Structures are given as C-alpha cells and as structure tokens.
C-alpha cells in the first residue's frame, strides 16, 4: 500500500515503496537520478529494444495544476515527433500513463547522452575560446526556438540543456544544433489555450495558473512575471528571450548578470532592471574584446523590460551566426542597431557566406 504523501515516498526507496521495477512490461528502472521540484526521475532500459530510457514520475500531485503540467509535457513531446524528424531538439517520447488510480503519473522518453550545459560551464568554460562559447550560445538558441509550435519553455537554464558530443556545421542549409532542451513541465502554448474546448483542458488549467504561483527558476523570470500576465498581450512568445539574454551573458563572461539574494529582492529591482542590465555590461570588453559592442547590444535587445521591444530568440540566433561565420563585429553603434533590427535583411555589408535564411530552402 502506498503512503499518502509525496515526501514519504521520496524519503524511502521508490522500489521498496511500490514494488515497481518494470513499466508497461518493457521499461526497466535501474537508477534514481535527481528530479525536478515535483518529480522523481530514473534511468532505465527498454527491454524490447535495448535503448536507454529516462522515466519521470509525478508522485501524489499536490494540485490539478501540477497534474496538468506533467501531462502537458507528455503531450508536447508527442507533438514534437514530426519536427524532430527535421531538427531534433527534444527527447523522443516513448510512453506515458498513470498508476495507482492516478496517484502517480509517469513519462518515458529516450535517455539523452551528452554534456549538461551546467557541467560544460563548470568544466570546460575556462579553456574555451570566445568563438567556442558563442558557438555553444548559437546551438542553444537554435534548439530553444519553438515558434512553429507557438510554445514557450518558461524555465530555460543550464540544468535543462544538453549539448550532444558532436560537431555542428554552421554552413548547412539544414542546420542541426546538436542540442536538446529538457524538462517541458512549465511550458505554455497560447495557441492551444485559445483552441481549448472546455475549462477542464490542461492548457486552460495552466493558463489560469500563470502568475498565481512561481515554481520555475526565479533568476530567469522576465519582468512581465510581476505584472498582469494578460498585459503582455501577443508578446508572450518572447518570454524565453529573457532567459537567453542572461545565458548569453554568462557564456561570454562566465558570470551571472544579476546577484539578487531572493525573489523579493529581484521583484523590487524591476523598476530599475534595464539600468541593472546596462551596468552589468560595462566590463564586457574585458571578456569579448572587439566583439563586445555587438554582443552588448544583442544582450540588451534580449533583455528589454517591455516584451514588445524584446528580440525573438530566432533573430538573436541569426545575429550570432553572422558574428561566428561572417566575423561581423562592427564598432559603429548605429550600424549595429540597424543590423539587429533585421539581421537577415541587412545590406550594408557584402557577405562572404550568407545567401538566405537556411529554412528558405524548405
């Protein structure tokens, strides 16, 4: 019999509590790994195919919102299957379901083998050149684009990003970023909300829960977190741009842009947040040399307080490509701003390699 609290389950060995070691007659659980705030994870193997798998459990969901978020991750990964056939950005969905009359939910995906970005920052950053670090940024920005599905991740940070141990081709007409984004439990789709048929749909529950509680990493929260959610209007799809601006700064400098002690201090700083951003960029030249002017401007564009003025991740990824491949590092601030307004249509320079956006070929 299961003990009726999630803490009681997590404090004891999962196998001992449930007698569960095999899901759906094929997914064998082997090793418990760290999970999220409301989940427990295991590495295992698919005994039918021999593939390594990752199994995530939501144990005794504390609310319908927590349950909806868990199911939403499974739904999103299933929908990604077609897109992953073009560019793989998420783990492959394998199975999901419920156990013990819905007291436990589970999700099975392939296990991704690679280097967690958090580990890369700790182990490889110091020996990486600026080009190496910007290449990592380019890969992450490419993997974080999900505009074709109108989905925002809402919890992008180095602990949710895996770099595959493979080289990328910056000149390919079909770019493959060799980067996988994990943990879609906080994700949100405005389109799915608008097309929901009844109030009990998971995306309606998630939409109604936005702004009522904060369960994602507070460091990455954009300023609109602290205002009426509806006030951001149609710019909800720039939510993740804020996290990417903070990540780009960290990949250039090795430091966090802000040093707020808690979420209250961060919320209080929102009145001056753009000043905090510009103050943090004063010494960027010490890390980026001649690339500092354009990288500073790019980070500022991603960290605009008003989401209407913020840059899309896709546009920022384009800008990084020009820096990396075309060696575009001007010092003229007017030229930089005109370039960032529309990187793919900037015609003041004769490019050596750029023809058109790769996806124009599809």
TrEMBL record:
Classification via InterPro entries: Kinase-like_dom_sf (IPR011009), Prot_kinase_dom (IPR000719)
Gene Ontology MF terms in the entry: ATP binding; protein kinase activity
Pfam family, one: Pkinase
Ranges of residues in domain Protein kinase: 27-322
SUPFAM superfamilies assigned to the protein according to its UniProt record, in alphabetical order: Protein kinase-like (PK-like)
Top-rank lineage group of the source organism: Bacteria
Classification via SMART domains: S_TKc
Protein name from the UniProt record: Protein kinase domain-containing protein
Phylogenetic lineage: Bacteria, Pseudomonadati, Pseudomonadota, Gammaproteobacteria, Pseudomonadales
């Amino acid at each position: 019999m299961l003990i009726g609290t999630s803490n009681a389950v997590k404090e004891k060995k999962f196998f001992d509590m449930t007698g569960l070691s095999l899901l759906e007659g094929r997914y064998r659980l082997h090793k418990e790994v760290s999970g999220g705030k409301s989940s427990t994870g295991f590495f295992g193997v698919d005994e039918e195919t021999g593939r390594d798998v990752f199994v995530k459990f939501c144990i005794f969901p504390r609310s319908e919102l927590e349950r909806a978020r868990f199911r939403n991750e499974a739904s999103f990964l299933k929908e990604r299957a077609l897109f992953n056939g073009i560019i793989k950005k998420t783990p492959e969905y394998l199975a999901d379901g419920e156990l013990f009359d819905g007291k436990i939910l589970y999700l099975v995906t392939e296990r991704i083998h690679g280097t967690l970005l958090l580990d890369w920052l700790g182990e490889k950053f110091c020996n990486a050149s600026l080009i190496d670090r910007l290449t990592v940024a380019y890969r992450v920005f490419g993997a974080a684009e999900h505009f074709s599905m109108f989905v925002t991740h809402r919890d992008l940070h180095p602990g949710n990003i895996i770099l595959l141990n493979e080289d990328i081709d910056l000149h390919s007409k079909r770019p493959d970023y060799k980067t996988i984004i994990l943990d879609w439990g906080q994700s949100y789709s405005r389109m799915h909300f608008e097309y929901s048929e009844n109030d009990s749909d998971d995306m309606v529950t998630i939409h109604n829960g936005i702004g009522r509680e904060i369960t994602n990493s507070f460091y990455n929260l954009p300023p609109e977190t602290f205002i009426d959610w509806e006030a951001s209007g149609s710019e909800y799809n720039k939510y993740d741009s804020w996290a990417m601006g903070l990540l780009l700064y960290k990949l250039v400098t090795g430091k966090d842009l802000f040093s707020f002690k808690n979420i209250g201090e961060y919320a209080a700083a929102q009145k001056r947040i753009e000043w905090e951003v510009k103050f943090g960029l004063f010494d960027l030249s010490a890390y980026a040399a001649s690339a500092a002017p354009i990288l500073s401007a790019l980070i500022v564009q991603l960290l605009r307080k008003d989401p209407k003025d913020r840059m899309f991740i896709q546009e920022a990824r384009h800008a990084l490509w020009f820096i990396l491949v075309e060696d575009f590092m001007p010092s003229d601030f007017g030229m930089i701003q005109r370039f960032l307004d529309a990187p793919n249509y900037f015609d003041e320079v004769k490019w050596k390699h750029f023809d058109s956006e790769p996806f124009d070929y599809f």
